[in-house]
Design brief:
This protein is α+β, with helices and mostly antiparallel strands. The chain has three domains: 148 residues; 129 residues, Serine Threonine Protein Phosphatase 5, Tetratricopeptide repeat, CATH 1.25.40; 90 residues, Pyrimidine nucleoside phosphorylase-like, C-terminal domain (Aldehyde Oxidoreductase, domain 3). It is 60% helix and 7% strand. Helix 2 runs parallel beside helix 5, helix 6 packs parallel to helix 11 and helix 8 packs antiparallel against helix 9. The radius of gyration is 28 Å and the shape is flat.
Length: 408
């Protein structure tokens, strides 16, 4: 359901469709209840038309203004922070609902205006009073949404907000994946087969049908598929990997000597693991880290030269790395109701996450006292909190950062 509502246009479109439907239904309801409802809108047909036309004109103007502000904010975020944070703005609900309410008010006012008539006798006889009153209420809602939108925009373009939001989403995703992870029960669960050795397997190799990012894995669907096929499925690539057509994606291992239907494997696994044109943070923690590192690199560029922002990013990366360091590198193994292992996902190791968080920032911030000092502090604190299996990689990274700082 979340993926259905992720495009920016979905919420405004639903608001407009709802407004159009209300614009058709409320005048009919008004005719049924006109004798029982007190005069909510005391003016006549001319006054109703004037009010509705004013609302329509004002709402379409505000819709254009909000759209223009959104575009300016997107341009600022792209140039100041990173192009990869644009979708964070587009995915937020406040701009979507603001545009939706404004556009819906415009559509509603035009729809109701067609029902206002002068042909019926009486001062308010041809005026759908309930419908016109609802148009006025929509104006009040639009004003409230506009104020909320201005507040949201001023908050969302600050670097502190962006870094905190991306880091918080990455940590929440880590915690969610940890809750869903089932402890491995044997050595094969703990050490997935290397990608280079997939040709030696007697299982079915599932390849990609097109190019794109491995952005989402439907684990329940894969578990069901493996159960029906009497097999278990091993993903060969972690989420966030870019794959080209006909590249190995997964291995379907039979649990017994029976052969596995290769055609069905290819079709059902490809359906459960669709490739996307862009990365998202629905399941990809590394993409959140990538965004933070990009912000730090942009801040350390000669044109901006803002090491304080890079240190703020390192503070957020520290909390993410600590969440990773206190847990062992155990792949996510999914089992069926009987406890049989049906799916093993390939995930990033702690060392890979550490390289992603540290290497590029260390390279571009080598000449900065703030960045070098914060990196050394981060790695020293991380070494004390980490699992024993992660400490050698942290110590090597600390030695590299210290050596780079000594060359300054």
């Amino acid at each position: 359901m979340t993926r259905v509502f992720s495009p920016f246009w979905v919420v405004p479109t639903l608001c407009c469709v709802t407004a159009f439907a209300l614009g058709l239904l409320l005048p009919e309801l008004d005719r049924q209840l006109v004798e029982y409802v007190p005069f909510l809108f005391p003016a006549g047909a001319d006054g109703a038309r004037t009010m509705l036309s004013t609302i329509a004109g004002a709402m379409i103007s505000l819709t254009g203004l909000v759209f223009s502000i959104t575009i300016v904010v997107l341009q600022l975020a792209s140039s100041q922070f990173s192009p990869r944070v644009l979708h964070n703005f587009l995915d937020e609900r406040v701009p979507q609902f603001t545009l939706g309410v404004f556009a819906a008010s415009f559509v509603y006012a035009l729809t109701v205006m067609r029902t206002v008539s002068d042909s019926v006798a009486g001062p308010q006889a041809g005026v759908p009073q309930i419908a016109v009153t609802c148009a006025f209420l929509l104006v009040l809602v639009s004003v409230a949404m506009f104020l909320a939108f201005i507040h949201h925009i001023t908050e969302s373009i600050s670097v502190e907000h962006i870094v905190q939001e991306v880091g918080s989403e990455a940590r929440d995703l880590l915690q969610a994946s940890r809750r869903e992870r089932t402890s491995a029960s044997d050595e094969k669960d703990r050490r997935p087969q290397p990608v280079e050795d997939y040709r030696r397997s007697r299982g079915v190799v599932v390849v990609t049908a097109s190019d794109g990012y491995l952005d989402y894995v439907d684990a329940p669907a894969l578990v069901q598929t493996a159960t029906e096929l009497g097999s278990w499925i091993e993903m060969l690539r972690p989420v966030g990997t870019f794959l080209v057509a006909d590249q190995p994606l997964a291995l379907v291992h039979p649990l017994d000597s029976a052969a596995v239907d290769a055609g069905r494997c290819q079709e059902e696994v490809a359906t459960a693991v669709p490739l996307a044109a862009r990365r998202s943070m629905e399941q990809d923690v590394s993409f959140g880290i990538r965004q933070l590192v990009d912000i730090a690199e942009r801040a350390l560029s000669p044109g901006i030269n803002d090491p304080t922002t890079a240190v703020q990013v390192l503070n957020e990366l520290h909390t993410i790395l600590r969440c990773l360091a206190i847990e062992p590198d155990t792949p996510a193994a999914h089992h069926d109701r009987e406890g049989t292992r049906r799916l093993v996902l390939r995930e990033w190791t702690f060392e890979q996450y550490l390289d992603l968080c540290i290497d590029e920032i260390s390279h571009w911030g080598e000449s900065s006292l703030q960045v070098t000092g914060r990196l050394q502090e981060l790695l020293s604190a991380l070494e004390h909190a980490a699992q024993p299996e992660h400490r050698p990689s942290i110590q090597r990274k600390l030695a590299q950062v210290t050596q780079a700082g000594s060359r300054r």
